[in-house]
Amino acid sequence: MSTNLSITYTAPWKLEAVDLPIPKREFRGKILEHAVIVKVIATNICGSDQHIYRGRFDVPAGTVLGHEITGEIIEIGRDVLHLAVGDIVSVPFNVSCGRCRNCKTQHPEVCETVNDQAPLGAYGFDLGGWQGGQSQYCLVPYADFALLKFPDRDQALDRMMDLAFLSDILPTGYHGCVSAKVKPGSTVYIAGAGPVGRAAAMSARLLGASCVIIGDQNKERLAVLKKGGYQTVDLSTSGSLKDKVDAILGVPEVDCGVDAVGYEAHGHGENADTELPETALNDVMDITRAGGSIGIPGIYVGGDPGSKLPRPKKGTLDLILGQVWVKSLTMTTGMAPVMNYSYDLMQAILWNRIDVQSVMDIKVVPLTAGVDAYKTFSDGSPKKFVLNPNGYLKNS
């Protein structure tokens, strides 16, 4: 082995595919005996990666991007007891130790030890210094705790276009729905028809929702969901969201709401081209019924360096919290604890209880095409780009 082609961040709107050394089981000068090296099979471009690409989330130049990682273990440390070379695994995007108070209480998304600056770690962000997986090889610490091993190698490779989404967006969308207390018979509104919104739509259906409505301005993305049998509302057209929901349900409210957009949201109708970062969250608050619940897997940050608006630049948004209080809404925020859900969702995939490909519109490209894929995704493509660093997959 001599190369490790990787997608790295240079500056806003500028990425590079560069050849780096293959990672060792080391981090900041320490040998990690609890770590493994994976040869990456699939690594997806996420909407969260787009925040970095567009200069809306700071990372140091040279950072290897990517946090949606599935791979084959090629090297293990001596403290790794339950995994072996050759295992195919899903890597949760949360970097977590499994030993701190939060990890021990099923909150690996807010691990206390993997980031000196904040109680959370993730690959490919400036969240603890962990390099990402849009590369041929990747270091994964705390492997026994973190990794989801697929039970059968051939089956895993055959179902990779479904299983590749267990590292982030499928558990993230599912977490949004669980947080929103979706149950059999629920009516659900999901803000955002990007990949996480689509994952949330699939999850709501898996949980038994009677009607799932997705709102977005991107007609191509909405068309993918409509084809999959979901209700959609086009937010680029005139008219209130409540009226559009009323036209579907007969009432202007839903039982449960999910914000799968986050802090780069835009307005509606004549304001569809205007960035109004509180819009998606306010929409969900507005149309969720009194006593209802909201899941917020969409990212919100303490500061948005790329915003042209002074308050959002400092992480401050104009929210309708008074109405939230009056309606006694329950809201759950934060990163998804991926490993809390990934085994069950793997089983749902393998036993055909959830059809990821029906709404993901997947396009597999070689790692060398990754930089161009970032731009295409940022321009509004309905595609979910899966990078193929080592040729395990068939490019599409």
From TrEMBL:
Cofactor: Zn(2+)
Domain Alcohol dehydrogenase-like N-terminal, chain residue ranges per copy: 34-148
A GO MF label: zinc ion binding
PROSITE patterns registered for this protein in UniProt: ADH_ZINC
Top-level taxon: Bacteria
Pfam families reported for this sequence: ADH_N
Entry keywords, A to Z: Metal-binding, NAD, Oxidoreductase, Zinc
UniProt keyword annotation of Oxidoreductase present: yes
Keyword NAD: yes
CDD domains: PFDH_like
Similarity annotation: Belongs to the zinc-containing alcohol dehydrogenase family.
Protein name: Alcohol dehydrogenase catalytic domain-containing protein
Native organism: Bizionia saleffrena
Lineage: Bacteria, Pseudomonadati, Bacteroidota, Flavobacteriia, Flavobacteriales
